[in-house]
Design brief:
binds NADP nicotinamide-adenine-dinucleotide phosphate; 10 helices; globular; alpha/beta; 284 residues
Length: 284
Amino acid sequence: MKINAKTKVYGVIGDPIEHSLSPIIHNAAFKKLKLNAVYLAFKVSPTNLADAVKGLKSLGVSGFNVTIPHKISIIPLLDEVDSLAEKIGAVNTVKNVDGKLVGYNTDGEGALKALEENGVSLKNKKIVLVGAGGASRALAFTFANYAEELIILNRTEEKAINLAASISKNYGLKVKGLRLNEENLTLELKDADILVNTTSVGMYPNIKETPIPKKLIKPGMVVFDIVYKPLKTRLLRDAKLKGAKVVDGLAMLVYQAVKAFEIWTGLHPPVNVMFKAALRGLKD
Ligand SMILES: NC(=O)c1ccc[n+]([C@@H]2O[C@H](COP(=O)([O-])OP(=O)(O)OC[C@H]3O[C@@H](n4cnc5c(N)ncnc54)[C@H](OP(=O)(O)O)[C@@H]3O)[C@@H](O)[C@H]2O)c1
């Protein structure tokens, strides 16, 4: 890669940021398409967020991703937020449009593409979404366009109820928010088509944990775990043993990046190259 005075700069802001796979994924795509662009990781603490955003704007950075803990707090610092990101209440991608910072959220689209790629359609399906954090909100607002019924279960019940209420205000499907416990899971998983884990339960280093007791997983149901470290979570190993169809978090990780790349460059990136780069990054 040649860096010169015309090199476009992209990046990701978050804290911690050292383990982000985004630089590996995006730089692999820039290289393959021979674009004069580079993607860097910037550690930005919450107290420095406003200054950092001002600086990125003043320096004319072309675009950047936003990760924990800034996905919500960045919103008032942007010039515009697209309507989906506004409903979700979180931004993970920012584009610099002639000096104006515009926010988007590509997590939901990433999840949708990941399911599609695995042959899973959401049409007329009952989806049980476990978790009501940032990722869950993105998935819920995206899935609401396609599913017939959406059940949101969360450890903090109030967040599930609030998310369900804002979905039902915006969309016409059947939606309910409940406390995450065995009783509600038993009831709702009985006739569910798709179960999605959006909590961080089972994520490294707590890899022995699972948000769903194995006995509640039904053969033939789709179990999608968006956790990607590790790729084979305890939930997915249990689901496979029970005869469910499993989808891991890798494709969502790649497709949310694909969508961000498209927003920034207007080009379709080399998806296979991005998959390989993400897998390489996960092994490091
Ligand atoms: N594959 C991808 O592309 C992708 C993209 C985004 C995120 N992710 C992964 O998704 C996970 C969640 O990310 P996020 O940004 O949504 O985080 P977040 O906003 O912090 O939300 C965390 C969620 O996990 C729940 N939770 C945490 N610990 C729990 C426990 N011990 N028992 C039950 N529930 C628990 C929280 O419940 P409370 O509300 O009760 O605290 C909340 O619903 C992370 O593992 C992240 O790496 C993957």
